[in-house]
Design brief:
108 residues, mainly alpha, two-stranded parallel sheet, DNA-binding
Length: 108
DNA sequence: AGCCTGACTCGGA
DNA sequence: CTCCGAGCCAGGC
């Protein structure tokens, strides 16, 4: 299922690194499905959220793009800061371009 | 079957 | 850098 593929891909993102929704969709072979990646993460329930580092996925400009009710922007920011990823008051990842991780160049 | 929503992105101005 | 329009399509009804 699409959701499972997305969750699996997101699990590959290393700690203290971030990715864009489009990075995940491109890795899955569908560069134009960034939105569906968001849909899949939005479908996470509280329990599966513990096994998927969903907070490491932000939009292509480095902003936290979550709109969910169960968890919010503050929650995502807290999780990122817990792994030493700085997020400013506008919910943008600081130094996003250098923290952005590539699914293809797996060096870290 | 169709219809609607949405954690997105890109290109052009 | 910002703003806007169009494209994208899974999943729930």
């Amino acid at each position: 299922m699409w959701r499972d593929a997305v969750w699996h891909a997101v699990r590959l993102i290393p700690r203290s690194r971030v990715c864009a929704y489009s990075d995940v969709s491109a890795f899955l072979g569908h560069p134009a499905r960034a939105r569906q990646v968001g849909n899949a993460l939005g479908a996470l329930d509280l329990r599966s959220a513990e096994t998927v580092p969903w907070h490491r996925v932000v939009n292509v400009r480095g902003f936290i793009s979550i709109r969910g009710q169960i968890v919010g922007k503050d929650r995502q920011r807290a999780l990122l800061q817990a792994e030493e990823v700085e997020v400013d008051s506008a919910y943008q990842v600081v130094a996003f371009s250098s923290l952005r991780w590539s699914f293809f160049g797996r060096a870290g």
